[in-house]
Structures are given as structure tokens and as C-alpha cells.
Write a structure and sequence with these properties.
The chain crosses the membrane at residues 12-33, 69-88, 100-118, 130-153, 165-185, 191-211, 315-337, 357-379, 391-408, 414-432, 453-473, 485-512. Residues 533-544 have a biased composition (Basic and acidic residues). One of its GO terms (biological process) is regulation of cell shape. One of its GO terms (molecular function) is lipid-linked peptidoglycan transporter activity. The protein is mainly alpha-helical. It folds into 2 domains: 1-233; 244-566, no CATH class. The chain is 76% helix and 0% strand. It contains 23 helices and no strands. It has helices spanning 3-6, 13-42, 46-67, 69-83, 89-112, 114-121, 128-138, 141-157, 162-165, 167-186, 189-216, 226-232, 235-259, 266-300, 304-341, 348-362, 365-379, 387-410, 412-437, 443-474, 480-502, 508-511, 533-541. Helix 5 (89-112) runs antiparallel to helix 8 (141-157). The radius of gyration is 24 Å and the shape is globular.
């Protein structure tokens, strides 16, 4: 085996995050353009509600087979195969065809049962015929998203983040092209055709890099890992991840189920607000996507101290990003929606309704981000765990109870508040579960970090709202774009100042160029993070309870494992 085949592509978290960020931002931008085009052409009406019921299928399949379940399952599997010097061809040759066959059966069943699916998702929907047609068209994504997710997880385990980050760029190119070409002839159905075609482009954009990974994999040792891989890919490993992902997506099911009984366009208002609110969450979770292979490696090595530090540092940075975005959205929601959507068939009444929903949705962004981060820590473990799914079930129950109780009186605002409340409850419970079941996470330090950032966000939100209000009072005819920019600048400036005053250590450890976590110095890390009692106990005994956290060891080629608190370089040969 050559040295090149033994090594993963070298790089750093920062460089991978920049490349992924650019591609994801481009895909997100096209996704926004897609929503703008749909709002302009179709507005918020019964026909858009019908499409969004069908859109539930790719919305559910995407986290299940691309973003969450497939990544949480496959990244650790491939990482361990590479660590053992084994090949990927047996895994691809056995698992991929079986997966495609099973997903094809699911897609066919969805197409045949489309009328029943529409009735189950949105009983009482005004335009069921278009919804059934769109469901049948979007059912193909069950197969294509599965293949795209398999490729994406494999590439990320090889620390190749570019092609996976480009999948939504390709996806939205396909949707926009078909809307442009067919909307005049078939109306909203053109969007469903675009979803199907765009899903094939998600596979095509990753195929060259995926084939290079297979060609570069070792051949002579390829048959060795079949037993362990089969166990990992068994039902016992897959079921908790699938249930977790479906339970998380079920918040949307609850919204659309309850929203179908409200006025026409309610589901569309919820969707437009949610799409805007999800942008900062997706960007903040980019950090978790890039660092997940490192977390999986630390977990595989038994380094619970490093896992705890990895979680705290990622959560600090992600919380800073998402809470700053929350402040901006709450302060500037009407102007943001007016700039983005109030064109063509999208009216000022649609803007007012969507902006009010957006403000409430934004309050749950921290919970959404934290759940995504914490779940990866749970699923990086060798043994499958049901805890994330159980915690999300509690949050979903809260969402359904609040939404069901108040939807008739408060309408879409009740559904948005139910979403925010349920996911925040789940986030708090999941963080508490990390300490008991994963690693000695410093909960008091995390609570202090988030509290300081939340106070900074509250101050920034007040400053942004004041800036927009003063501008509107002094110059009533100011364009919405100017109000958005002024409010955004005020929020960003005040949040930056308050965050620094609250403690520059909140994000400095991740941004620093040195390896994350630092070396221990008299009970403190270089990042300024005091070790929890559990960490100090494990390290002081020098046992192998935390694996490499308590010692260094030779890897057989003259390298030594890093001491506790140091990150695993991306270019380091895996053992």
C-alpha cells in the first residue's frame, strides 16, 4: 500500500469550512432565488400549499438520507475502515445496490399511494389533485437522495468536502431551470418536475470524486471488514438514526397537518418564513459538518475529554452565529420579507403574515442548531443509541400539544411558537444527556457561554429595531432594502461589541490557528476553558479510561498519538 493511499487528503478545518461555505452559500442563494421565483409566479395560495405538501417528501428524505441519518451512519463506518487500512469497494458493492433496491420500492409505493399520502399529510387541503400529481413526481427523490447521501458521507469521511457541499447548488439549478421552462405550461407542477431533475444532478456532481475515492482505495485488503461493516449497517444501527431523523422532521408534519385547516396560503406563509429562518441554522451547522469526522475519530479512540471540548467549542461558535442571526431576524423581519418576497403575486398582506411568523420561528433557531450538534456527538459512538430519538419525541409532543391547543385561536403564530418551544426543550434535554451518556461536557460553562451570547443578541436586537424604527420615522419612504442593511449593520456592530465584552474566549478557540483544545496548563486549557471535575479525575489517574486523553502511544510508524485536548490533524495517517 502506498503512502498516498494511507493518508487522507491534508487540510484544515478552516480551509474546508471556507470551501464548503462558499458552495453552500451559493446553493442557499439559489434556494432563495427559487423561493423568490415561486413567490413571484405563484404567490401564497392553494396551489403553492398543494406543492408544499408534496415538498414534504424531499424535505423528509433530505435529512434522512443526506444530512443526518446517512452521514451519522456512514461517516463513522468509513472512518473506521480507513483507520484499519481496509478498502471501500466491498462496502460499496454490497450496501449500495441493496439500498437502491429498497429505496426504489419505497418510491414506487409512494407514487401508487399518492392520494392517501396527501390525505394523511394535509386532510382538508383545497387542491388535492395538484398535490397528488406533485407527490408522484417528487417520489423519485427517495432513490436519488439516497445515492447522493451515500456518496456525500463517503467523501466527507475522506475529508473531501467540496462535492458534497455543491449538491444543493446543483439541485436548485435543476429546479430553477424546469420552473423557467415549464411554469407557463403546467404551473406549479413545473416545480415538482424540477425537484425530480435536480435530484439527479445531486448525484452527478459528486460522481467523479466518488469514483476517484474508489480507485484510490486499497484493493488487496478490501474483503477484510465485511463482518464488522454488516453489523454496523444492520437494523440495530440504522433504526435509532432513522427514528431520530423522522421525529425531527415530524415538526413540519405537525405544522402542515394543523395548517391545512387554516386559511388558504397558511402553509405557504409558514414555509416562506421557515426557509428564511433556516439559513443561519444551516450555516452554523457547517461547523459541525466539517468537524464531525474529528469528533468520530476522538470517539473511536475513546478520548471523551477531547469529545467534550470539541462539543463545547463547536457549540460556542454555532451559538454565536445563530443568536446573532436571531437578533437580526427579529429586528428586521418585515423589511427582510418585503425585500425577498413582495413581488408579483406575493402581496403586502402575505408579507405581514410571513414576517410575524419569522419573528417567532427565529426564537427556536438556537434549539435547532443545538439539537443538530448534540445528535452528532451521540451517533459518533460505536454503539447505537436511542436517546436522541427519545428526546426529540418529547419535544415533538410539546410542539403538537401547543399547536393543537392554540392553532384555532392564534393561527400560524401558534404553530411557529409550538415549533420553537418544542425544539428548544429538546435541545436542553439533549445537552443534559450528553454528559450522562457521551462525555464529561461542562454544562455550567456551556450555560454561561450561551447566556452571555443571548444577552449580547438581545442588546443587538434592540439596537437593530431602534435603528430601523428611527429610519422609518425620519424617512418614511426609505426602501426596504436600505432598512434591512441599516438594521443588519446595527445588529452586527452591537453584537460584536457586546460579545467581546462578554468574553472573547467564546469563539477564539475555534478560530485560532493552533490545534483546538490546547494543552493542559495547571488545570486549564490554552483556550481558557477550565476542566470539569470529571476531566481532571480521568486525567489525573493516568488510566486508559479516556484512551489517548490519558497518555500518548506509538502508532506503529513512529508517530505518537496527541495528548488530551489536541485535535486530530486532517492530514494525519489513520491507524
Amino acid at each position: 500500500m502506498t503512502e498516498r493511499s494511507e493518508r487522507l487528503p491534508s487540510g484544515s478545518v478552516g480551509r474546508a469550512a471556507i470551501v464548503s461555505g462558499v458552495l453552500i452559500a451559493a446553493g442557499t442563494g439559489l434556494g432563495f432565488l427559487r423561493d423568490l421565483v415561486m413567490a413571484d409566479l405563484f404567490g401564497a395560495s392553494g396551489s403553492t400549499d398543494a406543492f408544499l405538501v408534496a415538498w414534504t417528501i424531499p424535505e423528509t428524505v433530505s435529512p434522512l438520507l443526506i444530512e443526518d441519518a446517512m452521514a451519522l451512519l456512514m461517516v463513522p463506518v468509513v472512518t473506521r475502515l480507513l483507520a484499519g487500512g481496509n478498502g471501500l469497494r466491498p462496502l460499496v458493492g454490497t450496501a449500495l445496490p441493496r439500498m437502491v433496491l429498497g429505496l426504489s420500492a419505497v418510491a414506487g409505493a409512494l407514487a401508487v399511494a399518492a392520494p392517501a399520502v396527501v390525505d394523511a399529510l394535509a386532510p382538508g387541503l383545497a387542491e388535492q389533485g395538484p398535490a397528488v400529481q406533485c407527490v408522484r413526481l417528487t417520489a423519485v427523490t427517495v432513490v436519488t437522495f439516497g445515492v447522493a447521501g451515500f456518496m456525500s458521507a463517503t467523501l466527507r469521511a475522506h475529508h473531501r468536502f467540496g462535492p458534497p457541499a455543491a449538491i444543493y447548488l446543483a439541485y436548485n439549478v435543476g429546479i430553477l431551470a424546469l420552473i423557467a421552462g415549464l411554469s407557463g405550461a403546467v404551473g406549479i407542477t413545473s416545480a415538482a418536475v424540477g425537484v425530480a431533475c435536480g435530484s439527479f444532478l445531486m448525484v452527478a456532481v459528486q460522481l467523479p470524486a466518488f469514483l476517484r475515492c474508489l480507485r484510490g482505495a486499497p484493493g488487496e485488503r478490501g474483503a477484510a471488514p465485511s463482518g464488522n461493516v454488516d453489523v454496523r449497517l444492520g437494523l440495530a444501527a440504522i433504526a435509532p438514526i432513522v427514528v431520530y431523523t423522522v421525529t425531527r422532521q415530524s415538526q413540519v408534519f405537525v405544522e402542515r397537518f394543523l395548517g391545512a385547516g387554516l386559511a388558504a396560503g397558511s402553509i405557504s406563509h409558514l414555509n416562506y418564513a421557515q426557509k428564511v429562518a433556516q439559513v443561519p441554522m444551516v450555516l452554523s451547522l457547517l461547523i459541525v459538518t466539517v468537524t464531525f469526522p474529528r469528533l468520530a475519530r476522538a470517539s473511536a479512540d475513546g478520548d471523551t475529554a477531547q469529545v467534550a471540548r470539541r462539543i463545547r467549542q463547536d457549540l460556542a461558535v454555532a451559538s454565536a452565529m445563530v443568536l446573532a442571526a436571531t437578533a437580526f431576524l427579529v429586528a428586521c423581519a418585515p423589511a427582510v420579507i418585503r425585500v425577498l418576497f413582495e413581488h408579483g403575486e406575493f402581496t403586502s398582506a402575505d408579507t405581514a403574515s410571513t414576517a410575524a411568523i419569522l419573528r417567532v420561528y427565529a426564537l427556536g433557531l438556537w434549539g435547532q442548531t443545538t439539537v443538530g450538534l448534540a445528535a452528532r456527538a451521540f451517533f459518533a459512538q460505536k454503539k447505537p443509541t436511542w436517546r436522541p430519538a427519545g428526546v426529540l419525541a418529547v419535544g415533538l409532543a410539546a410542539t403538537a400539544a401547543i399547536g393543537g391547543a392554540f392553532a384555532a385561536s392564534a393561527g400560524t403564530l401558534a404553530l411557529a411558537a409550538a415549533n420553537a418551544s418544542g425544539i428548544t426543550l429538546a435541545a436542553v434535554l439533549m445537552l443534559a444527556g450528553l454528559r450522562r451518556g457521551v462525555a464529561p461536557v461542562p454544562l455550567r460553562r456551556i450555560a454561561a457561554d450561551v447566556s452571555r451570547l443571548a444577552l449580547a443578541a438581545a442588546g443587538a436586537c434592540a439596537a437593530g429595531a431602534c435603528a430601523v424604527g428611527m429610519l422609518a420615522a425620519g424617512a418614511p419612504g426609505t426602501p426596504a432594502l436600505v432598512r434591512t442593511v441599516v438594521g443588519g449593520l446595527a445588529v452586527a456592530a452591537v453584537f460584536a461589541v457586546l460579545a467581546v465584552l462578554a468574553g472573547p474566549d467564546l469563539v477564539a478557540p475555534w478560530i485560532a490557528s493552533r490545534p483546538l483544545g490546547g494543552r493542559h496548563r495547571r488545570g486549564r486549557t490554552e483556550s481558557g476553558d477550565s476542566s470539569e471535575q470529571a476531566d481532571r479525575t480521568h486525567l489525573s489517574h493516568g488510566t486508559d479510561r479516556t484512551g489517548p486523553a490519558a497518555r500518548t502511544e506509538a502508532d506503529g510508524r513512529g508517530h505518537t498519538a496527541r495528548a488530551a485536548g489536541t485535535d486530530v490533524p486532517l492530514g494525519r495517517p489513520l491507524r
